[in-house]
Amino acid sequence: MSYCDSCVVRNRAICAALDSNEIQALNGIGRRRVLEPGQSLLWEGEDSVLVANVIEGVLKLSTGTADGREQIVGVVYPSDFIGRPFGGQTSHSVTALTEATVCVFARTDFDAFAHDHPQLEHKLLQRTLSELDRTRRWMLLLGRKSAGERIATFLLEMSERLIEPGCAAADDGAQVEFELPFSRQQIADVLGLTIETVSRQLTKLKHDGIIDLPSRRAVRILDRLALEDSAG
Amino acid sequence: MSYCDSCVVRNRAICAALDSNEIQALNGIGRRRVLEPGQSLLWEGEDSVLVANVIEGVLKLSTGTADGREQIVGVVYPSDFIGRPFGGQTSHSVTALTEATVCVFARTDFDAFAHDHPQLEHKLLQRTLSELDRTRRWMLLLGRKSAGERIATFLLEMSERLIEPGCAAADDGAQVEFELPFSRQQIADVLGLTIETVSRQLTKLKHDGIIDLPSRRAVRILDRLALEDSAG
DNA sequence: CGCCGATTTGATCGTGGTCAACAATAGTGG
DNA sequence: CCACTATTGTTGACCACGATCAAATCGGCG
């Protein structure tokens, strides 16, 4: 009996490519690890020593300049893959935003295993291609959108990605109300803005009746069409 | 005798993973195509119908908003791979910046071939992982860097990526003088700036004696250290 | 209740965008 | 080869968005 058998992301993570014998083997080289909010798993610039699957929680990928400016370059959710297989340096830090559980592998072990299991590599390739598409869409936001458009786009993306599997979501696969896993500063770091601008734009959307902010971290979308209009 | 045998990127593109029998088979499903500057190969949003390798020239990957703002989300050079394998939509347009030669495959043909050749998929995975790293580094520029820092970063990246194989490059693998494959407007679209800001920042670097601009498209780096300082 | 960090709100400033005129270069035809 | 035009790039004046600096308010927790 392996950890993997009871893993909640067993059928959504790249592991879904493996049969039960293979999963048994993978189980032997991985181990679970729990991260507290704020705790980092990988640091920008260090050699790539481990990779992981996200089992539970939300983590940020971030880079920064020498003088302390930070940019969040990605956000990962359960079933997503973390880290840089096949050598090289980690190009960004990985830090838990919520309490998180991950399934970690020594990078060299994972590389060898992947090499012997093309199905696994194929899943990883598909995931990486999707992530690249998503990242490039985000570049349009960072390069060309106004503060208002950025916030609207961000809220729409959150409403789509924060759906818990098994949760009664809206028909179109998007949440109406949800808890952000981000502080205001972290939202600013995702959108390339300052905390003050984020705050102002959110209260503006609230005053316009497009969203409601029941608590610090909660958002309720009152007028999705108007929000989509604002997203540019 | 196949096209591939004489292909200048034979040993650098993902094809390098294949032996001569395999390359023969791949040769059967691909064909060469020449693109004029400004000509597009793929359009944002259309179903992914073809993929390709770049043989010669430089191409841009771009997205835009409904109201016409454009963002260049990537630039590809000889030996780079283009397109979205394994289904889905093309998330960005692909347009030649210079005259370009590409080796195109019907997407379904390529998918099937890749499925049977894990070595090829492995190369593609490595390439995609590197591209994702590079793209994420660019997000820091778009989200957090000033106009001056963006221009400096851009020039340094160009000096590294425009090295022609076989060309007598500087020892450290970067060019001192080079021809940009971009117009001022395209530089602006890469950096998330306006054409006027690009122009002003370039003349500022020139007046500061950090670079020289011998012609519209040419750049000569006079003081690389100062340029690296300016890149943030 | 009192403290501390997070967030909101307000006032002011500066970078980079916008609009407009001008200059330089490439392209075309006599 | 040069005149003429079209395109691309540069420069200037002004403006607005979002950053910065500062203060007030909220919310969680001992």
Q: What's the number of domains of chain A?
A: 2
- Give the name of the CATH architecture of the largest domain in chain A: Sandwich
Radius of gyration of chain A: 19 Å
Distance from N terminus to C terminus of chain A (CA atoms, Å) equals 51 Å
Provide the structure class of chain A. alpha+beta
Would you spell out the secondary-structure blueprint of this structure?
The structure is a homodimer of 232-residue chains.
Chain A: H1 20-29, E1 30-35, E2 40-42, E3 50-56, E4 59-64, E5 70-76, E6 81-82, E7 93-96, E8 100-106, H2 107-116, H3 118-144, H4 147-161, E9 177-179, H5 184-191, H6 195-207, E10 211-212, E11 218-221, H7 224-230
Chain A binds a DNA duplex (30 and 30 nucleotides) through residues 146-147, 183-185, 193-197, 199-200, 202-203, 215-216.
Could you characterize what this model shows?
The first copy, chain A, has about 230 residues and is an alpha+beta fold. Chain A folds into two domains: about 5-140, Sandwich (Jelly Rolls), CATH 2.60.120; about 145-230, Arc Repressor Mutant, subunit A (Orthogonal Bundle), CATH 1.10.10. Chain A is built from seven helices and eleven strands. Chain A has helices spanning about 20-30, 105-115, 120-145, 145-160, 185-190, 195-205, 225-230, and strands spanning about 30-35, 40, 50-55, 60-65, 70-75, 80, 95, 100-105, 175-180, 210, 220. In chain A, helix 4 (about 145-160) packs across helix 7 (about 225-230) and helix 5 (about 185-190) packs across helix 6. The longest helix of chain A has 27 residues, at about 120-145. Chain A is globular, with a radius of gyration of 19 Å. The first copy, chain A, starts with 19 loop residues before the first helix and ends with a helix. The mean pLDDT of chain A is about 95. The interface of A and B includes residues 132 and 138 of A.
